[in-house]
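Annotators were shown the component list below and the corresponding predicted structure, then asked to write short factual statements about the assembly.
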Amino acid sequence: MIDAKKIVRTRHHELLVLLILAAGLTLAIFGLNYRQTFHGYASRPTESQYLDSQRENVRQLRKEGDRQAARDAAHESYASFVKSNYQLYFHYGNDPMPTDHNGLTVNIYFILAAYAVGVLVAAMDGLGGFDRFLAGLGIARRKLYWAKMRVFLPLIGGLSLAVPGLMLILFYLTFPARLINLTATGMLAILVYNFALTVTAFIFGHTLGQLIGRPLVLAVGATLLIPLLANGLEHATVLWSALTHWLNIGGSFLRPGEAYWWLLAGCLVVSGGAAWLGARLYRSVSMERRRTLLTAPHLRWPLVIGVTLLLTLNFGTVGAHGLQPWPTLVWPLLGLAVGLAWQFWPAVTAVTRRLQRVD
Amino acid sequence: MKLTAQHLTKTIGEKKVLSQVEFSWQTGEIVGLVGRNGAGKTTLMRTLVDQYHADHGQVAIDDQDLTAVPEARQQLIYIDPTEVFFARLTLAKLGRLYALGYPTFDQARYRSLLADNDLVLAQRYGELSKGYQALVVMALNLASAVPLILLDEPFDGLDLFIREMIVKAVIDEVADGQRGFLIASHDLAELDGLADRVLFLKRGTISKTVTLEAVRDEAAKLQLVFPAMQIPAAVRQYGQILNVQGRVITALFSPYTAAVEAALTAEQPVLIEKLPLSLSDLFRSEYAEEVHHD
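Structure shown to annotators:
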């Protein structure tokens, strides 16, 4: 019985190590931030220094005639001062996940690394001929796809939890408990969010790598997608809150706010959809298509529509009641033009060549 | 063990590369696959191992349809010489990878084959010369212990000694009847001495299957010289013109019967000489319609 997972693991040994190193690097980055934060806390003014400074501040404000500000300044206790300046998280309204102040919420570096590795695995295997080797082994392609996922996803998922987990442990070991203003629910929200985004990033990147066969187009497209998706999401949540009132305010990947559950649901849909599509592509795409621009030509229009929607979200003009029609309409029209050009380009060039021969 | 391909059809882009290809091949046989550039030899091999999905048709091993029973594909091995993913791998790691993919892989034999050719396990495949890369591919094929082996241009760019090594290895493997080779090659001279049967791939289909010994019994390659510059009607009628140089005509007559001999004699040739018939001659005659003679 052939162990497909072992074959994939042997082939991608270096990439798996790279993932661990990437996680270690992000841990180092957060470790440096932590060091700075801890240093700032450790060198905070003493209570007597704070009270002296406060008295001087109040005296100055009274001299300037700002009695209200002087009263406010006089009321802030030392404990309150320490908390507001050194607490690790901010909590806004009903946001399930707190916003980081000095703590860690979203490990964006590792999420991007997972996305890049997903793209890389698909491209290396397809363009490098490893998929051809696997195809000849007599294992159903569906099983081969899931063997790849079972090699990478547990490691990626585990590392996505390990980095924030280790940081949280470090905070609890070194900061006063009152400053780690994080409930169990909040902690879980952080871990689940990182896990969901990281796993989704890998699967999405892998499927993208399966879909686009030209390395340069893939590299440029995959890179451009990052700001387009991030920006598009922010605009989408603003639109959603304006149109539905189910959200009070928009969110983003780094600060989801009230859009937290919507984003988690979105991750579930995107990762599930991308995995389903990836498995189907892996099963059905004949490998002579591996170096074509789009390995599955029947997905041309869905791709054009998706990119058009993304560009519309990014560059369409958002007003008080949603997207402004006329500045926004240019993007769907442009998408339609590109799609038609792509669809009929071979026929157009064939006719052009025939006409040139006649001339 | 027998592989059977039926009605295999494959279109790439807008070109129908394979059209209703049918053939069979079994262990104990060395079958050659020849055709002009772009005829579809490599496409056929890639389709047999399901790297390319066939549009229509079936490939079966011992009557097991490989689509329904993909595990049966374990009896087949094809190492694509142009699509090796393992250029950066050491020969040791390469062996481990193939051992994982093919449970019958004989690591000891693989290492022995490499050692016989002064190849070190720590060397990277991509750093080897073309000839040594071909030897490594051959070592992987042989050590896999898989019954049916596909070789795609195994002699391409190799020196005489490495070619002889590969030829000897193929003959030794087939001797006990447990292995079979399907060899796609432009090197007709090598195939001539090696293949039991040769498949001619033409316009996407197997246009002809020849058993070289049988062809040599019934056909003849003649060198003819006639008084006039023109090619006599009997030559055109009964033969395939292989070459014309001045008044010297080289033609293939299949079958070469007494009636054919009489017809040629009636044209009063100045010279009529029988020449050794090779696979190259059969190849030239099969594709002669693409070359015009006056």
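Statements collected:
1. Chain B has ten helices and 14 strands.
2. The interface with chain A takes residues 12, 43, 46, 49-53, 70-74, 76-78, 80, 83-85, 93, 96-97, 100-103 of chain B (CB under 8 Å).
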